[in-house]
Amino acid sequence: MRLGGTIGRRRLLAAGGAAFAAGAAGLSTADAARDGPAPGGAVAAAGGGLARAAARCGVLFGSAFDTEALDHPAYGELIRQNSAHTGNLNSFKYDWLRSKGPSADFAGAERLLAFATERGLPFTAAVLVWNDYPPAWLKSKSLAELRYLFDAHIDETMQRFAGRVAAWVVVNEPFAPWDREPGGWRTGPWYTAFGPDYVARAFRRARAADGRARLILNEAFCERRDLVGAAVRPALLALVERIKHAGVPLDTVGLQGHLQLQHGGFDHADYADLMRRLAAEGVDIEITELDVDDSAMKGTADRRDAEVARHYEEFLAAVLQVPQLRGVTTWGLSDRFTWYHEVAAKESPLYPRKPRPLPFDEALRPKPAYFAIERAFLAAARRRR
Ligand code: G3I
User: Fold this and answer.
1) CA distances from 320 to 208, 327, 370, 384 (A)
2) Burial of 357 (0-12, 13-18, 19+ CB in 10 A)
3) Is cis: bond before 283, omega within 30 of 0?
4) Measured from the CB, is residue 118 less than 6 Å from ligand 1?
5) pLDDT confidence of 48, banded at 50, 70, 90?
6) Minimum mean pLDDT among 154-158, 201-205, 262-266: which range?
7) HEC readout, 321-339
8) Is any ligand 1 atom within 6 A of the Cβ of residue 289?
9) Residue 368 half-sphere exposure toward CB, CA atoms < 13 A
10) Structure pTM?
11) Can you give the pLDDT at residue 43?
12) Which residues are registered as beta bridge partners of 292?
């Protein structure tokens, strides 16, 4: 196995290995076997994988998925095996539910939710309101129509899934400083409709339609040590302070955690400090979309894998010091199904170097990142004892 010499057979068994990886997914056995002998009986041995390690320190671990997990059963099984909760990548987004017009098609979202429910995994639906990626048909709507569509979307969608999803990302990525709006707000149809008040309105309406789902405000970029991070961190904190003081039903702040070296690196201590200050407002915290972009890393795949692993471990060591951290979700689980393929393909259609941002490789074998994540959870469990 191309995992570095220090990773023992026992740990591979615990993670689920090549025998499992080459299973029902339609992934080639040759691919999985090429690098060495496959550990057998891995599925039964795994029994919880990363979720089990996270549970040792009281944190829920999971991976978000979409239709690829339904189309590739071994991948779906890997998600189940390593997750204590899960959620969608795309299928609950406005432009997926209402791609052609205001009338929704919930079939795709229902299939994902059924997958999670059948496996006993609490499900976080994402996202209800996001100013990015509006469907084309929305762009010609009047102000009055936008306001009506905003309310109608929240009411219909929240009522439909009430009692069936554990949580909703109600508002995603409210800030985008490059839009140059006062306060750093991200512009888009919903911001046009109500201005900054769209956030409080969305949460109040979501709570009215579903009294039980945990309601999440989700933001990106906070880990960045650049101008964007420096603008978004205080803007998010001020927003949370303001709406919590106004009695808006916000339960959780989600910090995405797409770790990208190319934006000035990270200051994990500052980030953990932000988490503590957010938590002081009476919310809990989740890392909602964790992955580590290796596109700015140099060297062989082994070398990049080691560096990706190190970033996972350092990041988790910092955030696991915050007691209000309730969950960590990775944005996918295998390098075969990462959004970074789309990013790389946009740069160059032939992109020869495949992205490797996740804990399992393209053949569903655990990478050094898997063991780094596991180590971080177990170290936090020892500290918390
Ligand atoms: O499924 C179609 C495919 O049929 C078509 O051939 C192809 C052509 O471009 O597009 C495919 O859909 C793409 C889809 O991802 C699935 O791959 C969409 O164009 C593309 O816009 C969509 O991007 C998603 C993006 O959010 C926008 O919704 C990414 O998968 C998803 O990973 C990304 O997730 C976001 C979070 O929601 C918020 N935080 C950042 C994160 C990463 O950008």
Assistant:
1) 33, 10, 16, 10
2) buried
3) no
4) no
5) confident
6) 262-266
7) CCCCEEEEEECCCEHHHCC
8) yes
9) 20
10) 0.90
11) 30
12) 259
